[in-house]
Amino acid sequence: MKIGVLGTGQLGRMLAHAAPEGVEMAFYGNGDAGPVRGLGPVCAAAYDDRDALIDFTEGLDALTYEFENVAADHLHEMAERVRLSPPVRALEVSQDRLVEKTFFNELGLETAPFRAVDSHDGLVAAVDALGAPARLKTRRFGYDGKGQFPLQSADDIPLAWETLGGPPLILEGFVDFDAEYSIIGARDLNGRCAFYPLVQSHHRSGILRVSVSPIAVDRALVTEAQRISRAVMDTLDYVGVLTIEMFASGDRLLINEMAPRVHNSGHWTIEGTTVSQFRNHMLCVSGKDVELPQPRGYSMMINVIGDYPSDADAARGAVHDYQKSAARPGRKMGHVTAVHEAMADRDRHAAAVLANLDDVPPGTLP
């Protein structure tokens, strides 16, 4: 069986490492292909090159993606030639923040309040309706804190409008939350679902820095998170891994956004569970049954933004180097996972890693 991946980054690398026996890999992208070098042939072409995309499907048995900014029209054509998982509709929903939040609300799922912004006057009206602080975002292409502007008051409107360059935009109201969680689910071709333990995420400057799982949380919250994930996956007839990021405010869960792919907040599952998110995604995409993951202990994943820990002993254990060609500000170069049977041992290990990362000031993360 041959499976193609749209994207040549670290997620493609980890998907290849998790592929079932007998599966061959191929990759498509116009970015840094260092992470997937040697793991399969790479088609180096633009994501808007319709002919190259169609040609890429030749000889494939299944197709998936680790990069979401591919034109849906092209994907619909590709899906006519090869089984594409997750489905195009999931990608269409996730590509536009307004469409995404409207989709959640139509399913009866709660989000932060929001308003579409199509003009400067519309932004003024949206801030008047939602109040400040609030966050102005581009509707498309924002990730890792990009394409966002935090408005502290109406006085910030001119700068926010200038910074983001005009519509289409969305204004999201302020959410006073207690914690940020991710629910990672997987669904196979037969509609069977499996869920990973709830993940608590810690961000800085809009970039995920640390993921912790399992965590001590009310069982009702876990049940609700799984209900949300299942509702989304069943509605979309989803196949593969889906990650939904949520804010917890008291006993409420408000959806922030979804990622129709394997996700950074699930990297800890490689060492921390019996079957990683990458393995389950590849199983589902290849038509096999999803597997139920069990935690192997207490896990913490720390993103490496730039250089690796200066103290090699501090980074002992699961160190993942993404083999990218060059570091730049805000670029994820790898991650380190600490997994231990005792929570205290995990925390000591993680603290040693964090203390040796130049971009994380002491005391800013758990």
Describe the structure.
The chain is built from eleven helices and 18 strands. With 366 residues, the protein is of the alpha+beta class. Strands 10, 11, 12, 13, 14, 15, 16, 17 and 18 form a nine-stranded antiparallel sheet that branches. A five-stranded parallel sheet has the order 3-2-1-4-5, with helices on one face. A four-stranded antiparallel sheet has the order 6-9-7-8, with helices on both faces. β10 and β11 (193-195) form a beta hairpin. It is globular. The protein starts with a strand and ends in an 11-residue tail after the last helix.
Strand segment tally: 18
User: How helical, in percent, are the residues?
Assistant: 25-40%
Percent of residues in beta strands: 25-35%
Low-confidence stretches: none
* Cα separation of the termini: 43 Å
Which helices and strands, and how do they pair?
Blueprint: E1 2-6, H1 10-17, E2 24-29, E3 42-44, H2 50-56, E4 62-65, H3 72-79, E5 83-84, H4 88-94, H5 97-106, E6 114-117, H6 120-130, E7 134-138, E8 148-151, H7 157-164, E9 169-173, E10 179-187, E11 193-195, E12 199-204, E13 207-213, H8 219-236, E14 240-249, E15 252-259, H9 269-272, H10 277-285, E16 298-305, E17 318-321, E18 332-340, H11 343-355
Parallel strand pairs: 1-2, 1-4, 2-3, 4-5
Antiparallel strand pairs: 6-9, 7-8, 7-9, 10-11, 10-12, 10-14, 12-13, 13-16, 14-15, 16-18, 17-18
Helix pairs in contact: 1-10, 3-4
